[in-house]
Specification:
Layout (H helix, E strand, L loop, with lengths): L2 H11 L5 E5 L5 H9 L4 E4 L2 H8 L7 E4 L8 H4 L5 E5 L2 H13 L4 E7 L12 H10 L8 E8 L7 H22 L8 E4 L5 H6 L4 E4 L1 H4 L4
Parallel strand pairs: 1-2, 1-8, 2-3, 3-4, 4-5, 5-6, 6-7
The structure holds pyridoxal-5'-phosphate (PLP).
């Protein structure tokens, strides 16, 4: 099936209220363009260098999301244009995003990445680290960063009960954080969870944003 057929098939299975991020990492600009021509406007990339290079060949009304591990020294490369950084996993990175966004007179939306999987290799804050960050960091010190919600990745397993449990835990944390720290902030509205293999479970658990790569673009090498 073609990229545009994949997109329309997936679109039919997700509610209008859920944002589809097409994850185009390791796929060329031509593949992004095919998705763009099918109406897709939100794309996710996981490497700063790859994103910067690809972006030059593509329309300027694409909304780019950064979804991979981001080194602080790479923030300046994407700060001029990035719409959302979904993989905020340290205070150091938050401080650098504020600094670079200020330099370009921009407000960058970010998601706090939460470690919900059983695998050690995945990154992100534990729920307690996330609470501690919000207790100790006054939001008014970050006028160029909007904390828009949470992001998480479930364990890569066939055990759907486990995946469902992990997504439900993240949804509960999202509601708690929203109530405790952002009750008067309408911009805190995004729960990013669900990938090709598990996005239907994520939507059932309350996801508002799914990040889908291989089901749209095919397998990566
Ligand atoms: C690669 C990636 C995805 C997309 O994964 P697929 O299984 O190809 O859909 C989603 N989220 C993150 C953080 C990723 O790194």
């Amino acid at each position: 099936m073609s990229i545009s057929e994949n997109i329309s098939r997936i679109k039919k299975t997700i509610p209008d209220t859920v944002t589809l991020v097409a994850v185009s990492k390791f796929h060329p600009a031509e593949a992004v363009m095919e998705a763009y021509n099918a109406g897709q406007r939100v794309f996710g990339e996981s490497r700063a260098q790859e994103l910067v290079a690809k972006r030059h060949h593509l329309p300027t009304d694409i909304e780019w999301h950064f979804i991979g591990q981001l080194q602080t020294n790479k923030v300046k490369e994407i700060a001029p244009f990035i719409q959302m950084i979904q993989s905020l996993d340290s205070l150091k990175l938050l401080n650098e995003i504020e600094k670079q966004a200020a330099k370009y007179h921009r407000v960058i939306r970010v998601l706090l990445e939460i470690h919900i999987a059983a695998e050690e290799t995945k990154s992100g804050f534990s729920p307690d680290e996330c609470r501690a960050l919000l207790e100790t960091c006054p939001l008014q010190n970050y006028p160029h960063v909007q904390i828009a919600g949470l992001m998480g990745m479930a364990t890569n397993t066939d055990d759907t009960d486990q995946i469902r449990r992990e997504f439900e835990n993240l949804e509960h944390l999202y509601q708690e954080i929203k109530t405790r720290y952002f009750s008067d902030k309408t911009y805190f509205n995004t729960l990013s969870m669900g990938m090709s293999a598990d996005y239907p479970l994520a939507i059932e658990a309350g996801s508002t944003m799914v990040r889908i790569g291989s089901s749209i673009f095919g397998e990566r090498d």
